[in-house]
Specification:
The structure is a single chain. This protein is 29% helix and 41% strand. The protein has 141 residues and is an alpha+beta fold. The strands form 2 sheets. Strands 3, 4, 6, 8 and 9 form a 5-stranded antiparallel sheet that branches. Strands 1-5-7-2 form a 4-stranded mixed sheet, sandwiched between helices. A hairpin with a 2-residue loop joins β3 and β4. It contains 3 helices and 9 strands, in the order βαβββαβββαββ.
Length: 141
Amino acid sequence: MSSRVRLAEISEGPLSVDRLIGLVSDRGTGGIAVFIGVVREQDSGDEVASLDYTQHPTAAAALHACAERVAAAHDVRAVAVEHRVGHLEVGDLAVVVATAAVHRGPALDACRALIDELKSTVPIWKEQHLTSGAVSWVGLP
């Protein structure tokens, strides 16, 4: 792992925003950008009761590679990302991304790039359990 990628993990337990901020913080950092993905109660007009995230066996390696690419492409001091898998309820944190840079612009740009690339390249799929009893899959190839 490069010295700029402080964390790139998939976790079955609750996520901590403070933990990721602490991992990217240092005395040279002037701006930290954070993205927090939260399980919401509606998706495409359907009421969501809960969801389950499932990962492909290559997901951890893909997440690490994603973080490395974003760190290399942006003028950042550090990046950290953690995505949850397993059963989540409405309001639970699903993903946290933190990026740190000397100035806010690169931190914000890298944060957006990291969550966007994660969503498009890391094989993690969401099975939504709807209040109607139906099930909806999101993110399948």
